[in-house]
Amino acid sequence: MDMENLWENAISLIYPRRCPICHDIVQPRGKKICPACRRKVHFIEQPTCKKCGTELESSREELCPDCKKRHRSFDGGISLMLYDKIARESMTWFKYHGRQEYAAWYIEEILYYYRKELLHFRAEAIIPVPVHKSRLRERGYNQAELLGRELSRGLGIPLLPRALLRTKKTVAQKELTPAERLRNMESSMQAGTIPQGIQRVILVDDIYTTGSTAEVCTRVLNAAGIPHVFLVTVCVGETRA
Ligand SMILES: [Zn+2]
Ligand SMILES: [Zn+2]
Q: How far is the CA of 91 from the centre of ligand 2 (A)?
């Protein structure tokens, strides 16, 4: 057993790992999720949309109805699970109730299901979708950055946590039309510190809904000189054709 595992074992005796589905202590100890809980997860099944990673009804299609309708500047993407009731609850604990350890399970599954696709992206860096400073203060962490860090470790690709900056707090977006969402967000995102010469990156976020966040981040990165952006998210919503 190496030092890191030894350390993790010691920690898990004091702070036993919580399950990302039932939110109780994982049974059996030492796992990242209870096997019984894992069976309740709706993992995305093939065929999937090449852009957002959601499930498709037919393998004759390349894109979901949403991605066909709107321009997607990102090159492609994958997502782990359907944003159903179980996933929504998991995300709430992960984002708002300090369950940072869930990131390790999400990414472990993403690497299990999508290693081939991830390698195929040939990304040189991983960039998390940023949150505004005031949100960071409230929550204490950026959930996308936690995911990015795990993915960075798993793929052996550097993480660029300051490549994108959210300069303005966006107003609640639920009542906005897709076009308004895009404009609202475009004014709040800008490029930060990006090493020169990077051509291909993976953008990481927790949830994919309308795609406007991913679209805005991609536009900013494209404008900053990165031509190829691929998307990795933990949850994807059902398409609203
Ligand atoms: Zn459980
Ligand atoms: Zn799609």
A: 21
CA of 238 to the centre of ligand 1 (A): 24
What whole-number distance in Å separates Cα of residue 138 and Cα of residue 140?
A: 6
Q: Which of 27-31, 156-160, 223-227 has the lowest mean pLDDT?
A: 27-31
Distance 176 CA to ligand 2 centre (A): 20
φ and ψ at residue 24, rounded to 5 degrees? -95, 180
Q: State the amino acid at position 123 in one-letter form.
A: A
With a cut of 70, say whether residue 239 has pLDDT above it.
no
d(CA 38, CA 121) in angstroms, rounded, equals 27
Whether 77 is covered by a domain: the verdict is yes
Examine residue 47 and say whether the peptide bond preceding it is cis (omega within 30 degrees of 0): yes
User: What residues are paired with 18 via a beta bridge?
Assistant: 25
Question: What separation in Å is there between the alpha carbon of 214 and the centre of ligand 2?
Answer: 12
**What's the CATH number where 91 sits?**
3.40.50
Expressed as residue numbers, the domain containing 91 is 41-236
Whether the pLDDT of residue 241 is over 50: the answer is no
Residue 213 identity (one-letter amino acid) = T
CA dihedral 83, 219, 132, 23 (to 10 degrees): 20
Residue 9 lies in a domain: no
Q: Per the structure, how many domains does the chain have?
A: 1
| Ligand number, closest to the Cα atom of 19 | 1
Q: Please state which of the ranges 70-74, 92-96, 163-167, 236-240 shows the lowest mean pLDDT.
A: 236-240
Which residues fall within 8 angstroms of residue 17, CB to CB, at 6 or more apart?
Answer: 25, 26, 29, 31, 32, 101
